[in-house]
Amino acid sequence: MEHYHAIHEYFPLIQNTVIMLAVLSIIGYIGAMAVSARKFTSWPVRRLLLWVLGVATAAGAFAGPIGNMSHENFIAHMAGHLLLGMLAPIFLACSKPMTLLLRALPTEYAKKVSRLLNTNYAKMITNPFVASVLNIGGLFLIYQTGLYVWMHVSILLFIIVHLHVFLAGYLFTISLIYVDVTSHRYAYWYRAIALVVALGFHKALSKLIYQSPPAMVPVDEGRSGAMLMYYGGDIVDLILIVILCFHWYKSITPEKAQSRKASMQK
Amino acid sequence: MTRKNTMQSAGNKILLSGVLIGIGTMALIDEIIFHQLLQWHHFFDFNTMQFGIFSDGLLNAFALFAIVAGIFLFAHVTKLYSYSPLRWWAGIFTGLGAFQLFDGIVSHKVLGIHQIRYGVDILPYDIAWNVSAVLLLIIGIVMWLKTRTHTARKAGG
After folding, report:
1. Where is the secretion signal located (chain A) (predicted)?
2. Is A1 helix (H, G, I), strand (E, B) or coil?
3. Which of B46, B54, B72 sits opposite A245 (nearest CB)?
4. Given an 8 Å threshold on Cβ–Cβ distance, is A204 in contact with B57?
5. A190, A128 Cβ separation under 8 angstroms
6. According to the model, what pLDDT value does residue B153 have?
7. How far apart are CA A187 and CA A167, in angstroms?
8. Residues 6 or more apart from A168 whose CB is under 8 A from it?
9. What pLDDT does residue B69 have?
10. How close is the nearest chain A Cα to the Cα of B108, in Å?
């Protein structure tokens, strides 16, 4: 495993930094809750729990049992990818960090942030198809080029790639399910198609990895990792599908009509 | 909305709900029975065309989405309308047959994504697979035609 040495040396440093960032982000969220509670009704504690869960899930890709092995073992690497790029973003988005930020910030800064969310750039990258390309396309680059090997040699590439996986995963999530502040909205069918296409390409990529795992990965390990990516992706994307369909169901089923039929039946 | 329109819309929605659930269910049956329990199908067949990898991924992603969307659509219909359960089943059988037939012809044969079973004479398996698909499809279509004449008679009388 000579080729992993570069990362191996720095890995404890990366782990410590991630844990520090995780703790800071939780303290920041609690601080924002306190500030927001002075101006608005108090922020629900369950969202703090979702935030903590999301931060812990993301940190789990680097530290803990999976994280410890992730830079040496492809299966652990893939489990980390599912945690960092897919599961953590769902928890984090559901804790509504952008809404909390806008509430906590002084009005003038909140206005600046909201202007930022309304720029054409923000509009472009929150288009579900653009977000899918950034997310899934990035994965194709990692596993279908030499990037997977290079990122284990260069610490800088390692950081950039993981940051990208997390940010693109988060962007992908908020481009599909509107649980937080959303400035540009797309129709349900449009987001549904983007989600199906993205999941389809995710499945295809995992089969391509099965066919030819990245260089330096033992074949058996590569195949097990690919299957984990395939089925793990199904499970996590199922959460996104259920949330999207539930929102759609609520939007086409007026509550009034529901109670009207119920009273008619009595 | 007039009464007739409401009935028509409920009829289309319940049929669509059935088809979506049928497609998703057959994909699940395929995965659970043939991939996991029997292990006849392989996760990956090295004879697969590169295009096949993508079409299979998209098909299975759609099937996963379909079953969830179908269930929520069913919940929607039951909340708002009275509906014909036969029409729902017509949709389900059509969906089951359609997925099975597409999988049996396009995925297995044209794109060679994987075969039904390995190390055996594949022909009887292919015939059984596709004949059962056509049967399911015919059951679905016959049920659907029955609900059509049913509503037509109701509207006429």
Report:
1. none
2. coil
3. B72
4. yes
5. yes
6. 66
7. 23
8. A85, A131, A134, A135, A138
9. 97
10. 16
If one counts the domains in chain A, the total is 1
Asked if ipTM goes beyond 0.95, one says no
| Per-residue tokens: B60 | 């299975």
In a domain, A264, yes or no: no
Picking from A3, A2, A73, A58, the residue whose alpha carbon sits closest to that of residue A26 is A58
- Show the domain range for A218: 2-252
Amino acid at B63: A
- The least confident of A43-52, A113-122, A230-239, B104-113 is B104-113
Tokens of residue A223, six digits: 């195949």
Minimum distance, in Å, between the CA of residue A256 and any CA atom of chain B: 10
Q: Which residue has the tokens 């930020």?
A: A101
Nearest-5° Cα angle at B40, B38 to B44: 125
Residue B46's alpha-carbon distances to A48, B49, B53, B115, in angstroms, are: 47, 8, 11, 11
> Distance between CA B49 and CA B56 in Å, rounded?
11
Residue written as token pair 């086409």:
A252
Nearest CA-CA partner of B21 in B71, B55, B59? B71
